[in-house]
Amino acid sequence: MRPEASKRVALVFSLLDANGNGVLEAEDFALMGDHVVEVAVDSAADAKEAMRAAFHQYWSTLRTELDKGGDQVISFEAYTSCVLSPERFDTTIAAFAEALSALGDPDGDGLIERPLFVALMTAIGFERANIDALFDAFGPTADDRIRVETWAEGIKDYYAPDKAGIPGDHLVPDTST
Predict the structure, then answer these.
(1) Tens of pLDDT along 25-52?
(2) Helix (H, G, I), strand (E, B) or coil at 69
(3) Is the pLDDT of residue 177 over 50?
(4) Which of the ends of the chain has fewer CB neighbours closer than 10 A, N or C?
């Protein structure tokens, strides 16, 4: 596993831990789903429901794979072992990637405009400068839009344990200074 992948998932874990108690629980995913769909005001109800369902699936996969003791909490170490295992998490992250990128395309033209991309990513908890760097790394069109497929693939790459130098690395704050 590449160190970049570990940093990426550590960031997502911290963002998903909505109540800040150091573990992931079902309520964290429900809260995050609500935050994300709230900013997608122009998206269709079915796209919003798909996003909530994707957050539910994300939690369900973690619980099924990792909560053998039945305490309904997932530690950071357990989380990392699952989300960076393609055989355990690829189906879940694909559903999540498709739902989030589709939510960003309310008019169905296959393109996501920067303001909605920023709103969705801010709702998840990413920092604005990192969001803009990611959007720019996706190679926006002259009218400042990215393809839905580009974002979906970028989300999937974010969870790939063997990838580095990917656009998603821009979301991780530079801690070298």
Answers:
(1) 999 999 999 999 999 999 999 999 999 9
(2) coil
(3) no
(4) C
Neighbours of 22 (CB within 10 A): 11
Rounded Cα distance between 159 and 168, Å, is 9
User: Can you tell me the distance from the alpha carbon of 25 to that of 161, in angstroms, rounded to the nearest whole number?
Assistant: 23
Structure tokens at 84: 């960076």
pTM for the predicted model, two decimal places: 0.92
Q: DSSP string covering 14-55, please?
A: HHH-TT-SSSB-HHHHHHHHHHHHHH-TTS-HHHHHHHHHHH
170, 130 Cβ separation under 8 angstroms: yes
**Crossing angle of helices 86-103 and 148-158, rounded to 10°:** 150
Q: What is the 3-state secondary structure (H, E, C) of 156-176?
A: HHHCCCCCCCCHHHHHCCCCC
| Residue 4 in tokens | 């970049």
Could you tell me which of 85, 66, 87 has the C-alpha nearest to residue 23?
A: 66
